[in-house]
Amino acid sequence: MERSEQIQRLDRLVAGFSKPQSALLEVLHALRAWNRGQVPDTMVEDIARCCDLPVTRVRQVVAVQDRAADLTDRPRVCVGLTCYLHGGRDILEASSTHPVLPREQVAWAPSPCLGHCYAAPVARLADGRLVQLVRQGDWSQASAKPFAV
User: Which of 76, 92, 93, 129 meets the CB 3.0–4.6 Å disulfide criterion with 111?
Assistant: First the structure.
């Protein structure tokens, strides 16, 4: 998809938010989906314009997301505020005594916000896939539901 088309799509996406700043994470997710997981450096100024944010703020958020994406050596549970409130901390505690998901036989590590607050709580599995964690009784028997980015 060409840059001009991406900018038009971003403008339409941002228009759906009451405050353009609130659209930043959704904009970044869309760009990563269109660009093989990357946020092109050439688009940062366009993102800042669309979301009415300083360029430096956009670069900071992109950098934090990039660092979080590099943490794929073991399963990571998001403990950003929304995921924390929806059970992220409970998942970490449950995983310290037994596997939360049968395939993930190691303790989970905390992760900064993964940026998918709408699906809280979320986790990044060791293979890099993002999943929504669904409680089955207590968190010791959770299931993972893949979701579209």
Answer: 76
Strand partners, 109: 76
CA-based radius of gyration for the chain: 16
132 touches 144 (CB < 8 A) = yes
Q: Is the pLDDT of residue 141 over 90?
A: no
Please state the domain count of the chain. Answer: 2
Number of helices (H), then strands (E), belonging to the chain: the values are 6, 5
Counted residue by residue, the chain has a size of 149
Domain check: are 58 and 82 in the same one?
A: no
Three-state SS at 68: helix
* CA separation for the pair 31, 41 (Å, rounded): 11
Summary mean pLDDT of the chain = 82
